[in-house]
Every structure is written in C-alpha cells, then in structure tokens.
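Hi L., both proteins are below.
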Amino acid sequence: MKYRKWIVFALVAIGAIVSQFFVQQRYTSLLQVGSEYQWPVSISRRASWIPSDYLHVTFLGAQGPWMGERAPVEQQEAYVVVVPKPSGLLTVKEVTPNRPDSGEYILARITRYENGIAEFQIPFDRVKVDLSKVNPQFYKGYKGTLLATLKVKDGHGVVTGVYSKGVSIEIAKPGSIEEQERDSRIPLEELGNGDGKITPPVEE
C-alpha cells in the first residue's frame, strides 16, 4: 500500500510536468505564429497561489448570438466567431457549437444563456507582467477600459499585454477617477475605431 501511494504521487507529478510542457509549447507557438488582435478588458490580482507576475484578465463584452439548434448549457464548449476591426480590435459575430470552417474563432465555455444570447468565458485569462512596474490602481478597482493584446490561432490564444490609452500598463499612469469614469461610459462597440496604435513596454 505504501508503494502504491508513492507510485500514484509520481504519476500525478509526471502528469503535471508533461501538461506544463505542452502548455509552454502552445504558448511559444502562439507567440511565433498567432495573429495579433485586441480586446477590451479589466484586470485583477487573484488568490495567492497564482504566481505574482501574473494578473487575471476579464474579457469585456464576452457574449454573442447563439447559433446552435439547441440552447447551450453552462460550461458547454463553444466556438466564438470573431471579426477584427481595422484597428485589430475583435468583435463577436456569433457563438456556435460547431467549429467554423474558416475565419478567426476562439474556443470558450458557456457561462450563461438567455433570450438567444450566450455569455462565455475565454480560458486564456492571465497576462504575465512585471508587477513591480504596474501601478496597483490598474488592478484594484480601476474604472477605465483597458485593451489587451492577444495572439490567436486555431481557437487557442494567449494574452501578450495590457494597455491603457495605447501605453503598456507597465509604464502607463492611471488617469483621475473622473477620466476613468468618462472612459467607462464609452460603449464597447465604439472602441477600436481609431488607428489602434499601442506602445510596447520599454525593455531595461
């Protein structure tokens, strides 16, 4: 019995290592060949078990018309068909249970369904940052809208950065509460209608 416990422990450890290896391989592949887009987000710092150099990303406007013959159930896997604006900002065209034959799409899970509209959760919801360079106001009740850059390929993706008014949060400064509230009143569908230029963080 004692040896069986150690064998189970070893198998779990090996499984975790192998899983992490494939996650890292997918991350590297997406960075190299994935198409880059933008999405409005908010960020927060989650539980202590999450590494301190990661922030949680919440995708705003994560909903769209459901195209399935039957109503979806919670946690059902679905495909979010997206269309980029000229600026690179993604807009949701539809949510479907069937994998699209063409175009860009993101694999997600349904969180809510009502009146033909499906709300969903995108699984790649973390961004790696140098937390020592990020103003805590950005992830502690920030009211303005931030834009995340993400790379997407074959339904999978990775968040590569988060920006405030075109500047990386690692070098940006939060605006006043009044400015944040004014930004928050801009409809999501009106975002990304400019040139979409962003400033990458400065490497030291």
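That was the first. Here is the second:
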Amino acid sequence: MNKSVLSIALVLSLTACGDKPYEFEGKYLVTEGEECAPDTKSKDKDMVFFEIIAQGKGDSKTYTAKIPMGAAWGLPTSSNGNSSPTEKEELNFSFNKEGKSGLFTGKPSIDMTVTVIPHEMKENHIWLTKWDATVAQNGMVKQLSPLEEMKKQAERPGEKIKFSDKGLCLSKKYR
C-alpha cells in the first residue's frame, strides 16, 4: 500500500511540474528581426500594436484580441468571439468589419485571420506568424496579407522594422 501511495504522489507531483500554458494576455509592441530587439528608431516605438485579453481562468481560459492601429488602416480592430490555444500553443483570431454599399461612398467588408505563437526562446514575446485578409467591395473580392505587405515595406532601404522568417516578433509592454 505504501508503494502505491508513493507512486500516486510521484505521478501527481510530476504532473504539477509540467509546462504551464503560455500566458498570452498583454499589450504587445513591435520589435526588430530574429533577435526581437527593441525598436529604438521609430517614433511609434511605444505604440501598442497588438493586445490579447484573457477571458476566464485556468483550463477554461480563452482570449480575444485587438489591433489598436487597425482603425487608422481601415481594418477591424477587435476579434470576433474567443480563441483557445491549440495543441501547438497557437492562438487563431478572426476579425470582421461589415462593408457599406454605395457607388462613391461605399466601404469594403473585411474578414481577417491572425495567428500568434509563443516565442520558444524569449519570455514575454510572441510571433505574429499569419495575418490574412479578404476584402470584398462591389462584387470584387481580393485576398491579401497585411503581414506580407509589411515585410515588403521593411525590405525597402532605410526602413526601420526588420522581420524574421517566422513573422513579426512582438514583446509585452510593461508600463
């Protein structure tokens, strides 16, 4: 009996020591390159680029997201519904902005998906690995990736943001 109690205690203690789920919630700033170096050049270096808000606690914790700068770009700013981490610790968010009809004053409808994952080497950092959008207006549909467009912009000489092959590295803001 003592051996079985000891075995159960050992299993429970090892289970408790397992990897904790990543704490995604926070406000995130843009960083530079593979090293996720702080942005020291941009005038917007302290501007929140992405925000993740936790809902609930423990195993039932889900997340919503905001892209505060989205409004300035004509994009949706708040995710639809809640997202739970996948087995790979990915969070997948969907965003939607309804369009308005009009010959000259119409606005497109926009559907977006954004995927973030924890940085495997840097605490309090995430990779924005996917950002796809579908824009529909007046019967025309266009697929694009704001992340890929940002990467193209970053390749221009003199640009401030540097990208990694993994995506855009974001760090939690602590102020």
